[in-house]
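U., I forgot to send this yesterday:
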Amino acid sequence: MSNKKLYGIFTPNMVPLDDRGRINEPELRRIVDWLIEKGITGLYPNGSTGEFTRFSFEERKEIVRIVAEQNAGRRFVLAGAAEANVEKTIEAAAYYHSLGATAVAIVAPFYYKISQEGVYAYFSEIARSSPIDLTLYNIPQFANDISNETIKRLAAEHPRIIGIKDSSRDLPRYVNMMHDITPIRPDFVFLIGCEEILLPSLIMGGDGGTVATSGVVPEVVMKLYNLAMAGRIEEARQVQYGLLDLIKMIIFGADFPEAVRQAVGLRGFKMGRGRQPLSPSQQFSLEDVARTVQCILNQFGLTDAPPGGCDPLPLGLDRQSLDQIVQDVLHGLRAKGG
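Result:
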């Protein structure tokens, strides 16, 4: 077992909404319990999949409060504290610390493009003032990039910065980052944010991931992680391939993260209508996504097939290989009483 402060699979859970479009607290508490029951290692409220930008500052604090209370110390809580300025980010970090969060995740400044010196200064000021450990969150699609050199510099100078979640989708860069930083900070945590390369990142020494699919099929993603940690790489590879179609549908198949909302709903939760208005064509697309996701979940043995059945197996997987994955997953569920 790792002796690092964070490790494993963290779920950037979606927030269920009620008929008025407000946080559905009872349903969110049910999701937290369900994720823990399915073996997830950590909870990650206010992540990108959790649509943190679509909630107010007060709502973001409320989401972390609910998750932390329901977790009650059972799992890690990595709370998203990405606010638009240093003052609010530090305020959020202090509040999440008071709730008992393990650490906070902070993106680089967004909207305005700034230099790497500016990125370094931003995280340095937060690290000096934060009462809680923090992880960098590199997602250059939506915020300023954090270069490997800047990450190395921050890691060397600020013990309060304990790791990084990297969603750059650049595996060679990620591997070089681990290679450069581990010698100077053996305790530094490396979490991948791109589920297609979860297994490769673990093989190369990563500590885990924060991935959207873990909020839909937590038992399957945890199976991949546990197989990798046990050195059963060929079995883990089959699970990784088996997840690819689900990843394509919920991450790239419709306006992210609306397809994730549909998929979580298929696991038995009342997710409500998202806050982003949808055009008729988008709604039609999401209905198609929901059916396809249900088929994929059916192939994992986790839901019934939709009316009309399902299309042929994706990815060219042969029936024997996929059946073995399903049997392994079901065996694990029965062992846990799931």
